[in-house]
Amino acid sequence: MNRLTLALAALLLASLTACNEPAAPAPAAPASPGAGLPPGHPPTSGMPAGTPKGPTAMPAVAPMPTDAAAGGVTGTVAETLNAPGYTYVRLTTATGEVWAAGPTTTVAVGQKVTAVRTNTMRNFESKTLGKTFATIEFAEQLLVDGAGTAAPAAAVAPAPAADPHGAPAAAPAGEVKVERAPGGKTVSEIWAGAGAMKGQKVKLQAKVVKASNGILGKNWWHVQDGTGAAGKDDDLVVTTLATAVVGDVVVLEGTVATDKDLGAGYKYAVIVEDAVLAK
Predict the structure, then answer these.
(1) 3-state secondary structure the chain
(2) Which one in 3, 4, 14, 73 has a CA-CA gap of 20 to 30 Å to 261?
(3) For the whole model, what pTM was predicted?
(4) In terms of domains, do 202 and 110 share one?
(5) Measured between alpha carbons, how far is 186 from 263 in angstroms, rounded to an integer?
(6) Domain limits for position 194
(7) Which residues of 147-165 are buried (b: 16+ CB within 10 A; e: fewer)?
(8) pLDDT, tens only, 9-66
(9) CATH number of the domain residue 141 falls in
């Protein structure tokens, strides 16, 4: 074998070896200033020496909700009024004066208040206060100078689990049994004939099984008389300015309404409105 042959063999072997070698790994990218930190954490580069790095550097603190984020309005209290279960405030805001109302809250003129998660109502009449509001924001909560209120017994626009107008727990069979009022209708008859009775006065005798007072200027009762099927047509919602407690048997006269939508998730297929106690 001559030298030329040996040289060619050596070159061929070198080329094969080079083809079988794995590619060199790409150099690692430099760590970003925020690597290893929780989302939203500021970068630690440029911080003084000895400053702790990583998640323990700045514990997360939930910020107070702003009026825009919470779907409400913020202002300085110019006037305050109280009604059973409610506090009304006239707020001076950057865009003008706004009336708002929420669960009973201790508040004084001059304090900053945020009405959280509001529902706008127009031409709202508060018979308790003897006042009609052209526009008012009913709030789920009033925050005074950044501090919250205690959970209300009955919120204006609560989550479904806390709905003061929601159906009461089913009564044990045979617990409610009330005689029909002379010339009146039963609960199930009102449900069955609501379409024909819409806008008309109706009389009924029934037992108050749930009462939520002072909501939107009215008292809201659930009444039953033992007729109808449970969870279907055995319970009737009544609005009134009269007073009663759970367990009272009352004779009522009110106006039948159907497909009533009060906003904030309150919809009623059948409701008796503005009822008064009858003899």
Answers:
(1) CCHHHHHHHHHHHHHHHHHHCCCCCCCCCCCCCCCCCCCCCCCCCCCCCCCCCCCCCCCCCCCCCCHHHHCCEEEEEEEEEEECCEEEEEEEECCEEEEEEEECCCCCCCCEEEEEEEEEEEEEEECCCCEEEEEEEEEEEEEECCECCCCCCCCCCCCHHHCCCCCCCCCCCCCCCCCCCCCCCCHHHHHHCHHHHCCCEEEEEEEEEEEEEEECCEEEEEEECCCCCCCCCCCEEEEECCCCCCCCEEEEEEEEEEEEEEECCEEEEEEEEEEEECC
(2) 73
(3) 0.44
(4) no
(5) 28
(6) 176-277
(7) eebeebebbbbbeeeebbb
(8) 444 444 444 444 444 444 444 444 444 444 444 444 444 444 444 444 433 433 333 3
(9) 2.40.50.550
pLDDT at 170 over 80: no
Higher local confidence (pLDDT), 248 or 217: 248
> Could you give the number of structural domains in the chain?
2
Last residue of a domain, one of 117, 151, 185: 151
Note the pLDDT of residue 64: 37
